[in-house]
Amino acid sequence: MSDGTPRNRIVLEEPEEAEIDIPPVDDGIEALSAAEPSPEPRHAERRAYYATTPIFYVNAAPHLGHAYTTLLVDVVTRFHRLKGDDTFFLTGTDEHGENIQKAAAAHGKTPNEYADDVSAQFRTTWDRLGVRYDDFIRTTEERHKRVVSEVLQNVYDSGDIVYGEYSGLYCVKCERFYTEKELVDGKCPQHEIEPEFRTEANYFFKMEKYREWWRDTLTANPDLIRPERYRNEVLAMLREPIGDLSISRPRSRVPWGIPLPWDDEHVAYVWFDALINYYSVLVARDAVERYWPVASHFIGKDILKPHGLFWPIMLKAAGIPLYQHLNVHGYWLNDERKMSKSLGNVVRPLEMVRRYGNDAFRYFLIRDMTFGLDASFSEVAIAERINSDLANDLGNLLNRTLGMLQRYRDGVVPAAGAMEPEDVELRKAFTDLPAKVTRFFDSLQFERAIEAVMEAVRKANKYITDVKPWELARDEADAARLDTVLNTLLEALRCASILLDPVIPGKAHELRKQLGIRNAPFDLSNASQWALIPAGTRTALGEPLFPKFDLEALQKEIEESRAEPEPPAPLEHKDEVAIDDFARLEFRVVTVEKAEEHPDADKLLVLTVRMGPETRTVVSGIKAHYSADEMVGKRLILVTNLKPVKLRGIESQGMILAAENAAGELSLVTLDRDLEDGSEVR
Ligand code: MSP
Fold first, then answer.
1. Whole-prediction pTM
2. What Rg, from alpha-carbon coordinates, does the chain have?
3. Residue 227, preceding bond cis, omega within 30 degrees?
4. DSSP assignment of 505-551, as one string?
5. For the chain, which terminal residue's Cβ has fewer other Cβ atoms within 10 angstroms, N or C?
6. Whether the predicted pLDDT of 327 surpasses 50
7. Does 69 sit in the ligand 1 pocket, CB within 6 Å?
8. What is d(CA 103, CA 572) in angstroms, rounded to the nearest whole number?
């Protein structure tokens, strides 16, 4: 410890009918919309909108959780484009750090090769899901590294980065240190594994200094972090000292990172590197002025702390203005637990798309999650949603309308006559929607935006039942009335196709194609206008937009697949070490003479162990698994030459060995024959 800075520090992680080519369907995944919204107004007149996803780690293949945030941002940015905003959508991959280094080694690859492979998988997945991102950043790209170095150097020059030492409990998966309070049953809440004890010399970012500024700013700006519950969470973090943040790792241990510009023995901590992506891309594209003031980050609640605490303070220290919004969503749960690779309960998005179709999958994800809250994933829920909303409500409206048009008017759009009150009412239900949907999008209530459109669609179905066009068709005297009714329904469908375009772009395009207006340009304002389909337009009733699912058969299939045992997940191995390195560690047999609960920590026991002529004090995080009483007399293996560390005020002179399974159960390592205390273990 060289600089005398406070020790309260956090080290964290880490017309029509002209043909348009639609891309070929090669793998059961539908091609997406080929018709574009109307030509865009000139740049300067348009409002800018910039949205980002987290950049995903390349140590895991894309799963439903990653797909959710990415599809959500795709929906939101498509909506902004529909409004005519000058929209920029950024996603990418987070490629540095210890975890990636280890995962690459476990696959027998260099970090570079490994990152290339997995990053490409993300891009392919997004392309196949029809995600229209404007840029894809990889943190290993020069354009990013350059900006990270600049930002780091600026903050260092301003005196907000200092050198120091830190010890604590570190989750290797999160690549961050945890405070005891943050652990659940002594384990990392994300990965449910026990952290390692680590001491490291690092550079620290003086975050604490900015705590009050950030608390005041957040208090004065209620919509900076949304929904409110997450803003409150950050405000709660700011009530206590936030400490200083370790922003480097020794290069000797983690070579896979961006070297600090003033000390290349250290690399930037992966979070300090990663967060800057949101900004570095704009610098590289010379678009900071245009987009940075309107930056809207979308993230899951797992990474609230880096985005809600570190990032704004980093920006402040670097003299960069704040982002406009941090939008935080909940988790997709599978079997009640967060879907994640380490818990082994992930769902693969492309698999879902193959079974249910791209648009239905997107629709389900956006409709069935209330933004900010957790949601439970199930395939039965997807199929139910398809059957009710997409097949029964929307698909049926199209089928009935075009079916009647075919039967009564040869499939050709008639001109509307005088409107009756029920027609006016239905028109209003649709033309009011753009304003409503915009409000819901602006307040992150995406599921309500969809529900508002579907409510109007259901009204249109009810209108058919009420007006009974088949009765009008029987009497020539009602011909003009029937024309108006059919025209009203077609216009309703046109409006629905625009409003739903961001969510189900492929099917919305298909809908317009069946309406005979596939090439007509459109924007959001067209959904508040009426009578835009020219009389005489020829429609083309096609296949049902969304075929219904046989729920019973699906349920049976799922039960059968559950009955098959899951193959065990492959083990993740650490880097190889030479025998000489292993020989530097000393292990000995010990007997526990005394065991007490730690006076200042919930999860620790203080053990006095005998090792031949010596006794030692060992502080161990096993209290959730063993009581103090049952420890006395146990014969264990102690790592004796670890540098002593203080744990909550008591010095620990070694570490006892224990095995732990995937469920987090613990078993102490002991002897199968009696050998005397102090015997060496090799
Ligand atoms: N690399 C960091 C982010 C750096 S951003 C500067 C990271 N990567 S991650 O691959 O772990 O992705 C985390 C994000 O994936 C979450 O914040 C969320 O957007 C998404 N999700 C991962 N699992 C999820 C669920 N189970 N449910 C919903 N979203 C989830 O953290």
1. 0.78
2. 30
3. yes
4. HHHHHHHHHHHT-TT--B-GGGGG----SPTTPBP---S-SSPPP-H
5. C
6. yes
7. yes
8. 8
